[in-house]
Design a protein that fits this description.
The complex is a heterodimer of chains A (about 325) and B (about 190). Chain A has about 325 residues and is mostly helical. Chain A has helices spanning about 5-25, 40-50, 55-70, 75-80, 90-100, 135-140, 165-175, 175-185, 195-200, 205-220, 235-245, 260-275, 280-300, 320-330, and strands at about 120, 145, 195, 220-225, 230-235. Chain A has 14 helices and five strands. In chain A, the strands form two sheets. Chain A has a three-stranded antiparallel sheet with strand order 3-5-4. In chain A, strands 1-2 form a two-stranded parallel ribbon. In chain A, a hairpin with a 2-residue loop joins strand 4 and strand 5 (about 230-235). In chain A, helix 1 (about 5-25) runs parallel beside helix 14, helix 7 packs across helix 8 and helix 9 (about 195-200) crosses helix 10 (about 205-220). Chain A is globular and about 60 Å long. Chain B has about 190 residues and is of the alpha/beta class. In chain B, strands 1, 2, 3, 4, 5 and 6 form a six-stranded mixed sheet that branches. The chains are: A mainly alpha (about 325), B alpha/beta (about 190). The interface of A and B includes residues 283 and 290 of A.
Chain lengths: ~325, ~190
């Protein structure tokens, strides 16, 4: 299989996945099927900022949704998670600044960015090569794109859909450490979790999450137990299922480690974009693919992706293994064709 | 993966690709089992590639420490082919300190791998020198087997013996050398004073 074929498949699969998520949380789009997992809004936004550089329409629908639903988002969490994604920090800052300026009720803009000359295109030249008039907010952060305007098509996430559990919890607790802690505890199947694991998945500092866990345990909403010298936590899922009007704990949306899966998926996609037209040898491409997957192994395994390294595949023979790992990634996202 | 006559070209090709990707260019002098295998003088597998020297601007220099770019390329190839991290090493480079066989570089077999790697393989005559020294210095075993496979003449062994004394002029070495030569069928070599 050629690297360009893998690129096309992964790129399309990830865009399909992104559209499907956004359609389920309130973007105007028609897609088939409904997912049983709970989305992670900030991880999805960061992933989309990267992947939609090949799909301006998706990028702009994301902006519209963010402007409409900004009260359901945590800017702090977006900042915390941004470092895990292979994204230019200026582009994330531009998206945040644009959303604040365009939100129905303007949030105070604490945007201290000095004007810099726009130089990096937001979108791939393959999909948008000419920009006659740059968007001022993006330009201020060093990025060039046509003026971004609200499409006005977004709506609120439907709380009845399993995929929108995060938003139900944010309506309950506000967008912060509590709602994310509860999302992790209600959905993660790994049994009692310690504060470090919860903080990692929740995308907040361990100290903050420890405080949250202590107060949630004091409220009786979750249970704390000691394992050695470490506290571990579980949610009373039956009580929470009742509160959330679910048929039972088994009806709870499923867990995906988005904070590990989506940065890895984006990194693979960006690497494939870089290599699709390369003149490098098949061996060198396979070598770089191996190095990439080795670097991402922890994230991929955390997201239950089957890393295909059961048998040795030397030199250029690693490329089919890389293709199989990419397929496993797409399958995890429900995007395999 | 083992280093054999079938894989050594693949490994040097991969090393060259990595060097080129890193923007490097390296010229190396290789001796030992891998060189014998590459030249088809001996047919056996080996675990490593022994670097005698790095060639730079027509001069040879010690291969220790290996250039950073070569270290990075070596690590990538090791990961890609399941090789020991030290598969390409400067083990025998100290030979350079006491002098190489006269005219070695005029006899090497040179192969270029892409634009980033040139490998000079020591030829049969010089390998007889290094193998005899290794046999005496480290004991028989594979060194003796390699030496016998090269079918050296009495004259070649005598020349190799005289050179090897420049590497270790001690009486102890000379005594073991004479024993080794006898084992190889040379009883009357003129080793000089």
């Amino acid at each position: 299989m050629q690297i360009s074929e893998i690129r096309d498949k992964v790129s399309q699969g990830l865009l399909d996945f992104a559209w499907r998520q956004w359609a389920q949380i309130g973007v105007s789009a028609t897609v088939d099927g409904a997912d049983r997992w709970a989305v992670d809004p900030e991880a999805l936004i960061l992933f989309t900022i990267g992947i939609a550089r090949r799909d301006p329409r998706l990028f702009d629908e994301m902006l519209d949704w963010m402007a409409f639903n900004h009260e359901l988002l945590s800017t702090q969490r977006l900042r915390n998670l941004a470092g895990r994604f292979p994204l230019p920090s200026g582009l994330v800052a531009a998206v945040t600044a644009w959303t604040r300026r365009t939100a129905p009720v303007n949030s105070p803009v604490s945007d201290h960015a000095h004007p810099v000359q726009a130089r990096e295109p937001v979108f791939s030249p393959d999909v948008l090569a000419f920009v006659s008039q740059p968007d001022p907010t993006f330009a201020q952060h060093g990025f060039i794109r046509p003026p971004a305007a609200r499409t006005g098509k977004s709506h609120e996430p439907d709380p009845a859909l399993p995929v929108n559990l995060s938003f139900r919890l944010r309506h309950l607790f506000g967008p912060g450490g509590r709602s994310e802690t509860m999302r992790v505890l209600l959905t993660c199947p790994d049994g009692p979790l310690d504060a470090a694991r919860i903080a990692d998945e929740a995308g907040f500092a361990k100290r903050n999450i420890s405080d949250v866990l202590t107060s949630l345990a004091a409220s009786g909403g979750i249970k704390a137990t000691w394992a050695g010298n470490e506290r571990r936590f579980t949610a009373y899922r039956d009580r929470w299922a009742l509160l959330l009007d679910l048929a039972g704990p088994a009806d709870m949306p499923s867990f995906v480690s988005w904070v590990h899966l989506l940065p890895a998926a984006l990194e693979i996609s960006m690497w494939l974009d870089e290599k699709a037209d390369t003149a490098e040898s098949g061996y060198l491409i396979a070598s770089q693919a191996r190095s990439l997957i080795n670097r991402l192994t922890r994230d991929l395994e955390a997201a239950d992706i089957d890393i295909q390294h059961r048998q040795p595949a030397h030199g250029a023979a690693y490329l089919p293994v890389f293709a199989a790992t990419s397929n496993a990634l797409l399958a995890r996202l429900g995007a395999a064709h | 993966m083992e280093i054999t006559d079938e894989t050594i070209g693949l490994l040097f090709g991969a090393l060259a690709d990595q060097l080129q990707a890193l923007g490097g260019h390296v010229e190396i002098v290789v001796i030992g089992g891998s060189a014998l295998t590459a030249l088809g003088l001996v047919r056996r597998s080996t675990r490593d590639v022994d670097l005698l020297a790095i060639a730079e601007n027509g001069e040879l220099r010690l291969a220790e420490p290996l250039p950073q770019v070569l270290l990075a390329a070596r690590a990538a190839v090791a990961a890609d082919f399941g090789l020991d991290g030290n598969w390409l090493n400067a083990g025998p480079t100290d030979l350079l300190k006491w002098g190489l066989p006269e005219g070695l570089m005029s006899r090497v077999v040179t192969r270029s791998y892409g634009r980033a790697l040139v490998v000079h393989f020591a030829n049969r005559f010089d390998q007889i020198h290094f193998k005899l020294f290794a046999m005496v210095d480290q004991g028989g075993g594979r060194h003796e087997a390699d030496l016998r496979a090269l079918s050296p003449t009495h004259g070649e062994l005598a020349a190799a013996a005289r050179w090897s004394i420049t590497q270790d002029p001690s009486p102890g070495y000379r005594s073991v050398l004479e024993d080794a030569l006898r084992v190889l069928g040379v009883d009357d070599a003129d080793l000089g004073d």
